[in-house]
Design goal:
single chain; 191 residues; five-stranded antiparallel beta sheet; 2 helices; 23% strand; globular
């Protein structure tokens, strides 16, 4: 501790009071990885995180395109006049792109198998849309190019369902098949 400075300081007292204080300087270095991991692991983790984020973005874009297509499909279905008995087919866009042809279903009570003809020769992916009869259809599956069948399981055997398949030529160009529906006999209710 420095001595107290008297009211009248002599030069010797002043030099003692204002003497420089030496501090110990400690050099700062980054600590080594506590687990002994090499520094390249941090770069690998960053790369994995970036790749995962990119994959999520691709999935979100594809899901958005499927939702857009189904919304357009539902708008067109809503404008069709209702008919008794057989549901009206969904109109096909008037583009030069061909829709999936010969859409058929095989009803196995709790599962339905859809089959169709690929108009693109295995080039374009497909979106299968479906739902309960009389309600808007929703995207159920996105299928790789070349697939011409799909099975949906876990259905209620007492409910009718409708389906359509869209050939996706691009995010703005697609062609929709006709709509097919089950025609299940109503079961008598237990008395």
């Amino acid at each position: 501790m420095a001595p107290a400075v008297p009211d009248r300081t002599t030069p010797e007292q002043a030099s003692e009071f204002f003497a420089p204080t030496y501090l110990q300087v400690v050099e700062s270095r980054p600590a080594a990885y506590p687990t002994g991991e090499p520094e390249s692991r941090g770069g690998r983790r960053l790369l994995v995180a970036v790749v995962a984020a990119a994959a999520v973005v691709v999935v979100v874009v594809l899901a958005g395109a499927a939702v857009l297509i189904v919304n357009v499909l539902n708008e067109r279905t809503a404008t069709l006049p209702p008919t008794a008995g057989e549901p009206a087919p969904v109109p096909v866009p008037t583009a030069s792109f061909e829709p999936p042809a010969a859409l058929r279903l095989r009803d196995d009570s709790t599962s339905i198998r859809l089959t169709w003809v690929d108009p693109s020769g295995g080039v374009v992916p497909f979106v299968v849309a479906g739902g309960r009869a009389g309600q808007p259809l929703g995207a159920m599956a996105t299928l790789d190019p070349g697939r011409t069948s799909w099975t949906v399981n876990g259905l209620n055997p007492r409910v009718d369902y409708c389906f359509t398949v869209l050939a996706v030529y691009s995010t703005e160009q697609y062609a929709t098949s006709t709509q097919v529906c089950t025609s299940r006999e109503p079961r008598p209710s237990p008395s």
